[in-house]
Amino acid sequence: MRRPGALVGLCAVAFALAVVAPPAAQARTDIVHLRSQSFLLSGFSTIFPKVNVPTPQRSGYITRMDAWLVNEHGQRVSIRDVMLHHIVFINAGSPGIDKNGSCPGRGGEPFWGTGEEKQPLILPEGYGYQIRAGDRWRMQAMLMSHSLRAHRVRVVYRMRVVVGATLERVKPLWLRANGCTNHPSYDIEGGLAPGSVHTKSSLWRMPLSGRIVSASAHLHGSSVALTISQPRCQDRTLIEHKPLYGLTNDIVYRARPVLHEPGPIATGHFLSETGIPVRKGEMLRVTGLYDASRPHVQVMAITHVYIAPDRRAARTCAPLPQDAHILWTRKDGRFTAPVAAVPLNGLGDDGRVHEIDRPAGDPRVVTGPQALVKLTGQHFEPANLSVPRGTAVVWRFTDAGLHNVILASGPRLISSTNQTKGFRYVKKLYEPGTYKLFCYLHPITMTEVVEVRP
After folding, report:
1. Which residues of 389-415 are buried (b: 16+ CB within 10 A; e: fewer)?
2. In whole angstroms, what is the distance from residue 251 CA to residue 68 CA?
3. Cis-peptide, bond into residue 382, ω within 30° of zero
């Protein structure tokens, strides 16, 4: 692993790189810009659009792809206003040609995704992701507003498409450390000794024989690494994706209010023209590694692996290819994850958002063994609660709209899914201390502090 000062910057120059010289005179390379429909984000809201999106409407091979947000005037949107937390593009195929992904029953093939790390799709020279003019795409994303003012944004996605030439095609596999669960994220309880590492692994059966020629990763704040290992070869590590975190003055730490633990600004991108051989039916182990000393809410450990189909791929545990290397989209940064606490936020008398220690109001003191909190009218009732150690706190959802109960800071994990009226979330709190909570869908109005007495 090279130090950040020696890293190769790709993001700004990826589309300026030399392209493969097509063998036929009629072959060409198109730079295609497309846009999603617009999305409205009111003050500090979070939305999860799942929509159909335009396609290049041509047959060929994608060799590069990236995405960003623009406003109604086509100008890029700053993270200070709206953040593209994560995004994935899914190809449902064209008439007569169905695409499939790594998990059964999902419908379509996730072929590229990224997030805060702004990791573009990069393939080695001579390789491409094959598309057809009749393909149907959909997009799934998470957009977070950092602004009190409402914003209307679109996702712009740019591709380099080689048309009229035959490249070596790749099959994308979307692999997660938590397997084919209903949620792409998982929680980390925390509370272990400083320096402890939480690991979560899942085995994935390869659907084809071929060579891994490219792989990228999506990780969250506090991540240590994501690894892909090969159990049949003494579980040797094939690829290690390391996160690169921003320096202290990076905009990811200056954007206010802080609504979640800031993630990496880049993750190591694996490339090899030769490729790493894998065989159909063999298992690969995907492992996410995170800090285990503190609770971490809804983290992700996802790798997008691109395999060039090859029935002749080696069956033996041959040495890894000598041309295998890691590329970076940022030159600056640090490999050690900073401790970045998420504060509570509230709207002041001046009409601006300020960090707060706790919401207004006296605490409700409960002697146990159970305490009830209502999520109603976009508020927690009570907003301040004091309970003895071992109390079961019950959060009852009474609003028709979606809410959640998420830990901002505290000794142990508290994390519910997004739910609506009738749902109950129960957590027994054994560890004394101060638990600061909020709903990340309504982070300014919905805050709560629970004090757990010894």
Report:
1. eebebebbbebeebbbbbbbbbbbbbb
2. 16
3. yes
3-state secondary structure of 4: helix
Output the CA–CA distances (angstroms, integers) from residue 297 to 89, 253, 385, 414, in the order listed: 24, 18, 21, 8
For residues 446 and 218, what is the distance between their CA atoms, to the nearest angstrom? Answer: 29
Closest CA to 67 of 116, 130, 129: 116
Output helix, strand, coil percentages for the chain, rounded to the nearest 5. 5, 50, 45
**Rounded Cα–Cα distance for residues 313 and 22 (Å):** 26
Task: Decide: 271 and 328 in contact? Cβ < 8 Å.
Answer: no
User: What is the per-residue pLDDT across 222-275, written as a single tens digit (0 to 9) for each?
Assistant: 999 999 999 999 999 999 999 999 999 999 888 888 888 999 999 999 999 999
Half-sphere exposure of 310 (CA within 13 A, CB side): 18
Q: Where are the alpha helices (DSSP H) in 272-311?
A: none
Specify the 3-state DSSP secondary structure of 84. strand
- Separation between Cα atoms, residue 346 and residue 15, nearest integer Å: 42
Distances (CA, A) of 61 to 88, 132, 166, 308, 434: 18, 9, 8, 13, 54
Q: How many CA atoms lie less than 13 Å away from 412 in the CB half-sphere?
A: 12
Helices (H), 224-285: 251-254
CB 383 within 8 A of CB 446: no
Per the CB < 8 A criterion, the answer to whether 282 and 173 are in contact is no
Q: Are 412 and 393 within 8 A, CB to CB? A: no
Contact 155, 88 (CB under 8 A): no
Cα–Cα distance for residue pair 327/242, rounded to 1 Å: 11
Alpha helices in 224-328 (DSSP H): 251-254
How do residues 72-131 score in pLDDT, each as one tens digit?
999 999 999 999 999 999 999 998 888 999 998 778 999 999 998 999 999 999 999 999
Phi and psi at 407, nearest 5°, equal: -75, 125
d(CA 78, CA 76): 7
Contact 320, 238 (CB under 8 A): yes
Residue 181: how many other CB atoms lie within 10 Å: 11
Structure tokens given for 401: 């709209």
Give the Cα separation of 413 and 24 in Å (integer): 59
User: Measured between alpha carbons, how far is 187 from 203 in angstroms, rounded to an integer?
Assistant: 19
The reported pTM is: 0.91
